[in-house]
C-alpha cells in the first residue's frame, strides 16, 4: 500500500492548486484523477478575471508564452485567448448594467495542463485513470481505494468537483442544489465583451446565458434549472441573439453540472478537508468556480502544511481552513441569498423592473451611495415598493461577487 502525507482526490484546478502548494512545502503528495488526461473532458465557459489571474496563488502564469514555453503543447494554443475590458449584463429588455473589470477568456485544457506540470515539477505524483471508490478513516489516517490501487494518507483533500463523491464517502453532506450548464463553441467572434443575459420572460427556466469571445471562436452557453431541457433552451437562446449561426458553425458542445447551494455545512472532519466545487464553493450568481477553487485549494493546502508539521490531523486543527474559507467574499451568505431571490423568488416582471433600476450602472461596484440611490429609485416605482429590499440584496450580491466567479 502506498503511503502519502496528503492524498488529493481530483485533478481539476482545485486539486492541482492544492497539490502545487503542499508539494512546494516539501510534503509527500499524490493527486488521484479518474480521467486519462488532465483538462479533459472540458466543461467550462473559460471566462476569468485578470485580477484573480494575477493575484490568486497557483494560477498558471499570466504571461504563459514566456514562462511556460516548454509546456505549450501546440504553438497555436495560447493560455489567454482574449483580453476584455467590459462586461455587460442584459436584464430582459429593460436595462443593461456594465462593469469595467478586466477579464480574459482562457484555453481551459491548457490552463489545467500547465497547473498539472507545475504540480509535477514540484514533486507531486499524478495518478491518472484512477477512480476513487472508497474513502475510510482508519486510526489516525485514511485508506483510499481506487480502481487501480489502495493508498494510506494522513490527510485527504476532496477536490473531486461537483459530484463530491468523497464528501459523502467520508460522511459529510455534499451540495444540496445543482444547476446545469451547456455551451456551444462557435466559429467566429460574436461579441467584444463578456456578455450575460438575464431574461426570465423569454426563458423562464434559464438563470442566465453567456456569450464569451475567444481568439477565433465564441462560447455561447446557458445555466438552467436541473429539471429542464438545456439543449432546446440553448438553441432558442442562440437563435434569438445570433440567428445567422448555422449548425456547421458549432465546433464543440459541452455540458456539466454546477453546485448552486453555496458552501456545504462542514468543510472538514478528522483527516479530511474539501475544497472547490466539491465543497459547494462556486459563485451562486454567475456559477463560476475556477478562481474560487484555486484559492480554496491553496487555503486547504496551508492548513494541511501546518497539520503535517504538528502531526495534528484532527477536525479541530483543520477547522482553521474552514474559518479562513468562510471569511472570503466568495463564501459570503449574501451571495446565496441573492441567488435564492433572483432565481427562485423574482418574477419576470421583477427582473424587468430591476433592470430598469440599474440600467447603465456598474453592478459590481455598489457603494453606500449607490445602495441609497437604488432604494430611492425602487421606492419611487410602485411595482417595486414591496420588493425594494430584495432588489438591494441582489445588487449587493452582484457587487460582493465582483470578479470571483467568472
Ligand atoms: C458549462 C460550465 C461552464 C463553466 N464556466 C465557467 C467559467 O467561465 N468560469 C469559471 O470560473 N468557472 C466556470 N465553470 C465552473 C468551473 O468549471 C468549476 O468551478 C471548476 O472546474 C471547479 O474546479 P474543481 O477542481 O473544483 O472541479 P473540477 O474541475 O470538476 O475537477 C474535479 C476533478 O475530479 C475528478 N474526479 C471526480 N470524481 C473522482 C473520483 N471519484 N476519483 C478520481 N477523480 C475524480 C474529475 O474527473 C475532475 O477532473 C463552468 C462550469 C460548467 C459546467
Structural overview:
By secondary structure, this protein is of the alpha/beta class. It has three domains: 2-79 and 105-176 and 261-331, FAD/NAD(P)-binding domain, CATH 3.50.50.60; 178-259, D-Amino Acid Oxidase, Chain A, domain 2 (2-Layer Sandwich); 338-401, no CATH class. Helices cover 33% and strands 26% of the residues. The chain has twelve helices and 18 strands. The strands form three sheets. Strands 1, 2, 8, 9, 10, 11, 17 and 18 form an eight-stranded mixed sheet that branches. Strands 6-5-13-14-15-12-16 form a seven-stranded mixed sheet, sandwiched between helices. Strands 3-7-4 form a three-stranded antiparallel sheet. A hairpin with a 3-residue loop joins strand 10 (141-146) and strand 11. It is globular. The model is unreliable at 64-75 (pLDDT under 50). Flavin-adenine dinucleotide is lined by residues 9-15, 32-35, 43-48, 131-132, 159-163, 165, 181, 183, 221, 254, 256, 258, 276-278, 282, 288-291, 293, 406. Residues 9-15, 32-35, 43-48, 131-132, 159-163, 165, 181, 183, 221, 254, 256, 258, 276-278, 282, 288-291, 293, 406 line the site of flavin-adenine dinucleotide (FAD).
Tell me the overall shape.
Answer: globular
CATH topology description of the largest domain: FAD/NAD(P)-binding domain
Which band does the percent of strand residues land in? 25-35%
Largest sheet: 8 strands, mixed
The secondary structure category is: alpha/beta
Counted by DSSP, the helix tally is 12
